[in-house]
Design a protein that fits this description.
Elements lengths: L1 H9 L3 H21 L1
């Protein structure tokens, strides 16, 4: 829930939110790979 609020604050527009979501997912994948 906190993460969703964080994204909502940073990304006012749906297009930006989608871009941020993709970047966030990529970051999570990167962290998993780096482990």
């Amino acid at each position: 829930a906190a993460r969703e609020g964080y994204v909502a604050i940073l990304m006012p527009k749906p297009e930006d939110w989608l871009k941020s979501k993709d970047s966030y997912l990529n970051l999570e994948e990167y962290k998993k790979l780096r482990g």
